[in-house]
Specification:
The structure holds 2 protein chains of 2 kinds. By secondary structure, chain A is α/β, with parallel strands linked by helices. Helix content of chain A is about 30%, strand content about 30%. Chain A has helices at about 35-50, 70-80, 95-110, 130-135, 190-195, 205-210, 240-245, and strands at about 1-5, 10, 35, 55-65, 80-85, 115, 140-150, 155-160, 165-170, 175-180, 200-205, 220-225, 235. Chain B is of the alpha/beta class. Classes of the chains: A alpha/beta, B alpha/beta.
Chain lengths: ~250, ~325
Amino acid sequence: MKILVTAKRVTDPNSKIVLRPDRQGIVTDNVDFKMNPFCEIAVEEALRLRDKTEDSEIVVVTVGDEETTKEIRTALAMGADRGIRVAADEKSLDSDVVARILMKLCEQEKPDLVLLGKQAIDGDNNQVAQLLAEYLGWPQATFAYKFELTEGNKGARVQREVDGGVETVSLTFPAVVTTDLRLNEPRYASLPGIMKAKKKPLTEVTPAELGVDMTLKVTTVAFEPPPGRTAGVKVKTVEELIEKLATEAKCI
Amino acid sequence: MSEIIVLAEQQAGKIVKATLHALTAARQLAQKTGATFDIVVAGQGIEGLGAQLNGYGAARVVILEHPALLNYTAQAYAQAFAAAASGAKFVIAATTAIAKDVLPRVAARLGAGMAADVLAITGEAGALIYKRPMWAGNVIAHVKINTPVHVLSVRPTEFALAEPTGTTSPVVVVKATVDEAKLRMTYVGLEAVESSRPALTDASVVVSGGRGLKEAANFKIVEKLADTLGAAVGASRAVVDAGWVPNDWQVGQTGKVVAPKLYIAVGISGAIQHLAGMKGSKTIVAINKDADAPIFQVADYGLVADLFSVMPELTEKLAARKG
């Protein structure tokens, strides 16, 4: 089977992100960039599926500037077979444009399964996979917790993290699946993997070459800092804590 | 039909509370635009739900019925909702697991732009601005939707619970539009997390545990305090990841966003992504042995102590207060 998996370059989830004084964007000094953690889980799941099936291929895709090539190389070093970078400036993108770019790639590549992270930890939009599935008219399982291929590898049974528990759905391929936290523990790229990745094919294409209309449906016009919350007081004992909660905060 | 459509969510024949928060967002939009709103709910054999949605000021309550809607699936619900919202200018739902799953598909079908997890609606009709969180809420973006139809998921904790207005809304039951030939997914079942505790997103008190508890078995320390207070139980991403507790308990950027009257964080260091899910709580208590833990920067009351020694005392004393 053929699996298309996405790898988005995002700010390190452990970096403290603050708005620039001019409020035009975030401070990026001393902020590392890496693959979105949920994309790492998607790449890992693709690798495990390839191990369970015969003649499978994993194509890793990213949309972004030259720098985002690093995330493709990381996925290739983890074990993906080849990469495609769709060259675009991040400012020219919204979730919908990315979904339509991926739709064009799916039309060309004809994957059986598209695996994506459930959300990118920078934009927190949680939309691309669902938009893509609808544009393609494909079934979807978001927030995957367990993924099992069904007989003949023609579909999957996916357990999903939902409000109130875990739901199971059954899908027929081709399908779109997004990965949640508990699905797997992504591997690190090995040194030989990193060496091999340098020789794996990586192609570049532009949205224009794919015939994608770049009209934005959503535009960010400004940023503001979140409402601040200041540190309160330290209490010394349990008794003092209960006293404060009862008389000051009046919440017990 | 109205220009504003609220997609209501039902679970086992009950409208979920989050929907009542989305109704407040709909009322705000109605006020800004001078339009009316309809409430749309989908399922099979749910005619009786009309009564639960009556009295909130909707121009109509529309009940979509179809055998393919008996259980929620993204493909069927996206079709039914998009068909019901055809001609509307605004489609709104509360940010829930179902809304996250289906709303972008509805937007795609309507050719609409979508703003996810909206915190506030500002600006005037024709130039509306939606405020939404990015980077785990460390930045608030102001976004503008450029398409004629706007699709919004709204964060329940940022919009008050709608009170009934006393008016009655006509209830219409219609057969939903679903092209079953296009459906390639089926619902198999739900493994529910059984709990007699209040739902995490509705609870007025939440007690959450983190890695400071050291092992899964110790999570009962948190549960005991929660039960003493009639609270919901939450958890940090780290302990969900470690498999100690269900994902349904996760509070944070990629879990649930809560804003209770009292939030007690036990053995939680306060990673950025956790703070994103509880910073809006009215009063925050942190119990952690590391005095430098970031959780203390947002806590109203911090107790620097070994949780294993103070938690039993706290639980006991609070139980005694309750008598």
